[in-house]
Design a protein that fits this description.
The chain is built from 22 helices and ten strands. By secondary structure, it is α/β, with parallel strands linked by helices. The chain has three domains: 125 residues, no CATH class; 251 residues, Rossmann fold; 50 residues, no CATH class. The chain has a six-stranded parallel sheet, sandwiched between helices. α2 packs antiparallel against α12. The protein starts with a helix and ends in a 19-residue tail after the last helix.
Length: 456
Amino acid sequence: MESPASKFLKDGEAKSFDRKHRLTIKYNISRYNASVAKGLQQFEDLPSATKKAALIKHKVLENLDNYLLNFERNFKKNGGTVYWASDSSDASAAIGKILKNGNVNLVVKSKSMTTEETGVVPYLEANGIEAVETDLGEYIVQISGDKPYHIVTPVMHRSALEIAEIYHNKFGLSPDSTPGQITAFTRSKLRKKFLEAGACITGANFLIADTGSVVLTENEGNGVMSFSWAPIHIILAGIEKIIPSLEDLNLFLPLLASRGTGQMLTVYNSIVSGQGQQLQKSDFSAARTYVILLDNGRTNLLRTLPQRRALSCIRCGACLNVCPVYKNIGGHSYATVYSGPIGAVITPHLKNFRDYMHLSYASSLCGKCSEVCPAGINLHQLLLHNRNYAVKNRHIPRMERIAIFAWKKTMMNRKLIDKPPYAMKKMFFNKAVQKLWGKRRSVPEIKKNSFRLDKF
């Protein structure tokens, strides 16, 4: 079976030399860059805003247990129900139980990385429940049998012509359909699903501890429509989504919007606080709201210093859009839900570290990701800490450890450097380095003379 590291190298190479793919990504990211530059103009002092956000998230991570219990207590006071899920299986089981009790056979879904992480849609389909994505990008991904490419923009890798072709093959629309026509068709297609769904599933952008509220931000209105009509609202949220107070939204919402899409504020911003205590029948008194708090490896990361700081991420996707590696190999090459610099930091801790530590080496360490992070996460330094963690915990392959040891001993001994004949050194260097150096580059030539004056 092919290892994740081998697959990553193979897929990354294929994408790097796919000219069409690179042109599409270059165009889409250029539009993002132009929008973000405008969106950031709303901040009089962006560094101070970033620093404040970093301090708030630091305080949360240092006291995460208390904030989570506070949120649970307040959400229950609002009439909601809270489940705790240690992993994907627990989350799926909780969702399955809720839907079974509600006799639900159709679910509408808004965009959510945690549902991708836990495989909610495949689980529901395997249990005979229809699950329909209602975010336009996620809907395109679903009908094309694809995977989300980007944290914020699921179909960033698709051009308008490619999307029109998907709709032509799936629904018979004209292959020359415009984005407006495709959007209108999708709206009419989904409207019936909204009305018929017995439940909706969403993620959460923020969980507010002091009010027991869930904050959802979006630009299409599909999320607010989902939980406004469906009698059951299931919210799947990572335990790191907590912020202390409702007042903190005046900082985090503009930071998320400006870094994520270049807006001053997203179009729809909803605060859900359970179903309330005094609802009349006309006000959906049968409505039930559930929050599933997901761990799924997050406590592994929380106890790992200093990498725990990556849990401050607000999922804006800014680090992906500036990363030279991501812009060349694309999101699918990572073969994980969370790609780019943030994915390279957190994925090894959320999954098996040995299997995914290669992602921490897929970086130029230019530091641009740290520069644009709205939560002030020093991502490029955390990548180095992951590499150090891999060495200290002996996750590096045995032959690599032997090679590094031999290289170190040789470099520290002048006689071992000088004694072997030139031809032998050249042969050894070519055999040892050529494969790793890459088939598209020539191996540097060993010089005959050393730096010692008596050898000239």
